[in-house]
Design brief:
Elements lengths: L10 H8 L16 E8 L22 H6 L9 E10 L6 H15 L6 E5 L5 H11 L6 E4 L12 H12 L9 E5 L2 E4 L4 E2 L8 E2 L7 E4 L2 E4 L24 E5 L7 H8 L4 E6 L7 H12 L3 E6 L10 H6 L2 E2 L5 H11 L6 H10 L1
Parallel strand pairs: 1-2, 1-3, 3-4, 4-5, 11-12, 12-13, 13-14
Antiparallel strand pairs: 5-6, 6-9, 7-8, 9-10
Bound molecules: aspartic acid.
Amino acid sequence: MVTSASVTSNAYSSASTAVSAATTATAPVNQDLPNIKILATGGTIAGSSTSNTDVTGYTAGALGIDTLINAVPEMKEVANVSGEQIANVGSPDVDNAVLLKLGKRINELLASDDVDGVVVTHGTDTLEETAYFLDLVVKSNKPVVIVGAMRPATAISADGSFNLYNAVKIASTPEATGKGVMIELNDRIGAARYITKTNTTGTDTFKSTEQGYLGVVSGGKVYFYNEPTRKHTADSVFNITDLTELPQVDILYEYQNNGSYLYDAAVAAGAKGIVVAGSGNGSLSKLSKAGAIKAVKAGVAVVRSTRTGSGVVTHSDEDDQNGMISSDSLNPQKARILLMLALTQTKDAKQIQTFFDEY
Ligand code: ASP
């Protein structure tokens, strides 16, 4: 693993030497500023490489939370920031255990009068899944902002420091209250329910093409223009307080010449739910549909989503006849998150459908 100390050209390590002893534990508290807790989970924003032109072969999750905080001393003019390390992994390795740990910790923190908002640093690859999970399980109207970066801290023109600064700024803004979990990258404020990663390496990868952004950060100011319309955070029925695990939900991808056997494999492996990334408006081939219906008969909840990248999968009479669920405008990876939580409450397809209609 490359550590901050071993990197010669590192925005984070050079800033951390400039801010002497500015550890998260000893920073003085300014009573006039909000208290923002930063929870770190890893990703490129904590990534490091030996080359400052390397933006693909670096080690994600190499730098700790103190290094991230000390690199952006400007945050202390906006808020009293302190940090905690929840995990330090690339986001493909964020699993259900990390989700539960993070969600529970945020609920503990936001229940305290001493915390006004939370920022989560996270890898961008699965950031939208964690964001939507938190949108459904955080029991507070206080701001929660998830932030990542597309370039590691060691890169020329790394984007992480400014994204982190903006995230703290958003979390410190009174208008951010009650907006659900937000994602900040590239100056845009996206709703967890709507935004998705659209590009493998570009810094403008997070897009909210159909429903739009909640707002922007521009000229050092936070501007809000929209509100999420679906239920979230304090209005959500989902409660993880006593959960130690989440039900297994797998995603299958629709393609020409496919068969039924992947459904059988998922059911045999213990799936309690299956999301299908259907073609077009959630279409399934005859064989795929047969596999899905067989899974439903075995007691597994099956949700039709779409591989198109946008649009609503409309609910049909055939869904009701087959005991299947349609995903509304949730992409497959977010439909999986909602289905896992729905299955903690019920196995009834009609009731699960109402969750997909409301959240
Ligand atoms: N592979 C990284 C991750 O998701 C990518 C990133 O953070 O941008 O952890």
